[in-house]
Write a structure and sequence with these properties.
32% of the residues lie in helices and 26% in strands. By secondary structure, it is an alpha/beta fold.
């Protein structure tokens, strides 16, 4: 067993309380850390990501020792069941979580991008992050969205959070940042994406809020495109819409 560890038995321990408070957006941003939970997320966490501490259920250390051995300089805390339950954001904790430093990113968009205009659902945000990673879209611009570092978004991204760059901007700032991009915005009243011959690059594909749709300022500065609907459903959710459109553009279209 790695001997660089401490044992925590109380949920009142300051380290446990710190992790619990990281569920709050303002506290995450002020502390510069967020929480990543679960074996599937932590076993492949890139080595350039700064893990500040691991918290592992005492009786599961041997199961997860291979994970912490990838980050030998990080602090390890062994905790009892109650402490893990208090820190976890899931009903049935896996028994391992880590605090991770928020990585600073340069606010330059080189290449194609995805733009999230007011996406508020963590599941949609995580799905879009995961799809962007799968499609080779390195840049995501988030305008007034749910916090991309929330536990639900992190889980839904399935590790994609570490493969993309997310830049948070206002609408005006986003449009200035993307002034050299061709903006395509998804809306059910737009031109059928599947009938468009070519997509100009570098492109920025925009999806809007789940209930309100696209901001008017985005509409005014974008080519409006849509996904065809042949059934009784009028629209898809933001995650599915962005994912479907990205796959069609990246793998099905001619781009120039």
């Amino acid at each position: 067993m790695n001997m660089n560890y401490e044992y925590i038995a109380s949920i009142k321990n300051p380290k446990v309380q710190h992790v619990r408070k990281l569920k709050d957006k303002a506290y995450r941003r002020s502390s510069g850390e967020f929480v990543v939970e679960g074996e599937n997320f932590l076993k492949d966490i890139p080595l350039d990501i700064e893990v500040t501490a691991f918290f592992i259920q005492k009786n599961k250390f041997s199961q997860y020792e291979y994970i912490v051995n990838r980050h030998p300089r990080d602090k390890i805390y062994l905790v009892d069941d109650k402490a893990m339950l208090a820190m976890s954001d899931t009903v049935t904790p896996s028994g391992i979580l880590a605090t991770v430093k928020i990585k600073r990113v340069d606010e330059v968009v080189i290449g194609n991008a995805a733009v999230l205009d007011g996406v508020s659902d963590p599941g949609n945000m995580g799905t879009i992050i995961r799809t962007c990673a799968a499609c080779g879209i390195d840049n995501i611009v988030a305008i007034d969205c749910v916090d991309y570092l929330s536990p639900k978004v992190i889980r839904a991204s399935m590790g994609g959070i570490f493969a993309v760059k997310i830049i948070e901007k206002t609408i005006s700032e986003a449009l200035e940042l993307l002034k050299n991009h061709y903006l395509y915005a998804l809306d059910m009243n737009g031109e059928n994406l599947f009938s468009i011959d070519k997509i100009l690059t570098p492109f920025a594909l925009v999806v809007g809020n789940e209930s309100k749709g696209l901001s008017q300022k985005i509409k005014d500065n974008s080519k409006i495109i849509s996904l065809p609907m042949s059934g009784k459903i009028e629209s898809l959710n933001a995650g599915v819409s962005m994912s479907t459109a990205l796959y069609e553009i990246i793998f099905g279209k001619n781009t120039k």
